[in-house]
Amino acid sequence: MRIHLINPSHVSFGIAVITPRWLYVLAAATPEQYGDPVITDETLEQFDPDSIVAGDVVGIGIHTGNALRGYEVGHLARARGAWVVYGGIHATLYPEEAIERGGGHAVVKGDGDVAWGQAIEGCLNGSSTTIYDGGKIDAEQFLKARWDLLPADRYMWASVQTVRGCPKHCSFCSVWKTDGQQPRQRRVDAVVEEIVELRRRGFRFIALADDNFYPVTLEDLQQASRRADHHRLEELKTMRAERFELMERLAKLPSDMNFFTQITMEAAEDPDFLDAMRKARIKGALVGVESVTAEGLKDVYKGFNLYGDALVTRLQQFKQHGIHVLGSFIFGLASDRADTFNATAALALKADVTFAQFVMLTPYPGTVDFAKWELAQAKKPDAEAIDGIPITRHWLIPQSRRPKVYTPHPTLSPDEIRGRTQGVWDEFYSLAHIWRRSRAVKSLKNRIGFVLCSKLYRQMYANTGIATDSARHAKSERMARMLAKPCRRLFVGKPMPELQTPV
Ligand code: SF4
Q: Which of 211, 216, 289 to mutate to test the pocket of ligand 1 (most atoms within 8 A of CB)?
């Protein structure tokens, strides 16, 4: 009997950018007596059903985007006599669906660090329990990932989590509901020890896979102070101090290490924080810009962001502190008009963000947007469906038949939104613009590397997601496979087995 952990994906590139951390955390959560789990990451290669024998336990982690492939994998495993257990955000939101549609015997809801072991025991002991609710565990219980099980030479970046949860409540995001609004910060020692292990193995680039690396803003502190809420103020100050302590420790790691994280734009108002990030070599951050207009920000409940020229200035502040921005923009908001697309491309170029992603608004389960949309659909006399599947269950529609745009727009057709979004990717990632942005790195070799990585990013995230024709999909996959190998070499370093943990 063996334990398997599978990360489903309908596309595989042979090499992946970031390690799917959950696989290695659940490997650590697997009770020792069952041996090391067999790990399959389908973003590298497809799962082989022959690797399963009757009586094995197969854990499949799903988010909404890969749920359908996850269910296929679950059926294949069950047909071979395995126990099938689902986990991840999507299974947390729809446990019954994972059991009914995915052939699951059980589901782990919420954090799996503790509940995964219980689910394995339950299956093997013939328990009738189908739902194991892991809830939101305390940060002290977060497990260190089993990086010793990582395959060699397959990932460019490793991933480490420092904080779970986000105090904001953006309408398109489910993180604040699934991971909670109370940030749970991991002990600094535990984070640093894990990073040291990864550098020993040759990883120079680490994604700090946090929901929001900046959980306490200056405004939060001022508000607590204005309310004379001393208890809250002390709590916030402690959390902030721990962030600084973590960054001081990161600064003591080998100088060839680089970190990347996700952060809200408010961090740009906090020069001390940005300076600490620079010293810690947190060289890049995904910043959710979402919209370049005031109306768009209102649409997504993100009033704390800026727009127009103030937005350009704020994004530039990151760069002035040595932090590259991966700006994330959403298209298809009710307030978007035809000229919003060009205005967004122009702003992204003017603000000099190093990378950008342009996504089309998709109502994902667990979000405010989804709840509103589902309600509106339910009120319609003829509920929309594709091949008998209601579009409010869009993740169950086969990939090739899935619409690209779901929410009806007051002035733009779905094709217009898709076409214009593709146009913005084309503009932002034109060779001329990439070459100009490559000034961010110094040597010619690094500039060429920057161009390769920009093209890879675009192939992996734009063409395979937005394009509707299968020829363009296939070409993108081929291109991504070709670019991935040389890109990986740019990121990894010589292993440092002797590296000690800085104090
Ligand atoms: S989009 Fe970012 S800032 Fe907004 S709730 Fe989600 S994690 Fe928090």
A: 211
